[in-house]
Amino acid sequence: MKKGEMVHDVTSCSFFALYSWLQILVVKREATVHKIKKAFVIPVSMNYEKIYEVIKEHHRFYADSLPMIASENITSKFVRRCYVSDLGHRYAEGKVGERYYQGCTFIDEIEEIALNLTEELFNADHVNVQPISGVVANTAAFFALTNPGDRVMAISVPCGGHISHDTVSSAGLRGLEVSYYPFDSQEFDIDIDATRKMALNEKPRLFILGSSLILFPQPVKEIRDIAEEVGARVMYDASHVLGLIAGKRFQDPIKEGADVMTGSTHKTFFGPQRAIIVSRKEIADRIDRAVFPGIISNHHLNTLAGYAIAAMEMKLFGESYADQVIRNAKRLAERMHELGMSVVGENRGFTESHQVVADVRNYGGGSAVAEKLERAGIILNKNLLPWDSLKDTENPSGIRLGVQELTRLGMKEGEMDEIAGIIHGVVSGSLTYSKARERVKELRNEFNTVKFTFQEHPAYEFYDLC
Ligand SMILES: Cc1ncc(COP(=O)(O)O)c(C=O)c1O
Q: What is the value of pTM for the model shown?
């Protein structure tokens, strides 16, 4: 072997060894990195950032859509600020000044303010601000005013009643028998003469008024008279119209004869999601006991504080807001009617509330129409109408629209005309989804601040604490 070759051999040999050794190192390192990654990469189900990302997407979606679900609204940042406070970690069972836990000094102060504001807003003898939702408030009222086996009269679900008034839900859980008011679909109202005949026969213990589909004030006085004849009480579920009542633009159920008024605080009221009960003095104790210890323990003190602020907003801005809500609903209904849609309540001027209801069987029914409109960025819900049966729940005749949130964003009659045009365009097929979506986005661009509050501010911002 030549010297040179030898050298060459040795060199190439050690070069080869070094190369292999390096390769092994790389492979080992990759395996280690893989192992480390495997140990530290957070599975999707545990990635908390993912939740915020999805929430932000939801915010963006709402920021360029038209939110028209009649049971929703948007809260101001002044209300929302309370949600993240320490109040959300605490308990305050019992009444102000008579708590079963220590540490409630400041909570008492807040609940006292909420109670006083509610009394003022509704000119009330007695209020309870502890129910955490409308169904909870209704359930408490049933426990206070009825016994299992009693009969109640309620508006059926196709005629607009809420499920909690029915045997399938809260009334049923209380063991109540439910009879339905005879209903005049043309007038969209309870048939009083037929109701009286039925009531004299069936002797209900409680008349339930108030609905989920509520276009007009209901005959509280007339029902009160019948209730007097049969020795019954009257309850009015004002969940949908609470903000319009607070704004003095809808009937005042207690003044007209109801013994008790329940209502969620987040539909036409300025939020947050909870409820109140307003009642006559003589049943105050029964109502309070039914709420606590009846069906509530913790009453969610962070949203209680938010509610106190919403009640202040209502006191300051409720009347002008309620005025505009009703004007907007009327304009939307009229324009949809002018465009050839079958809007319910024509005999009575379509609506006196925040709602507009249309029979859309001609356009494929409530389910198809609600889905089509969502593709265009208009969010509303399908709804049973008085001529539907419960079997039609999946594809009822109607759609229900609410203008309260759009009104809070500052929209007026001109925008209602534009919205009616887009709705008609989408359901009739004269407007493509993409064109409709564009028009919705353009419209929303101009209306993205919360109004009727202390200081206007962006509506669908994600408030980041971290
Ligand atoms: C008339 C009526 N009562 C009660 C409720 C239930 O309210 P909550 O969702 O606050 O329990 C609704 C819901 O939309 C409703 O329409």
A: 0.91
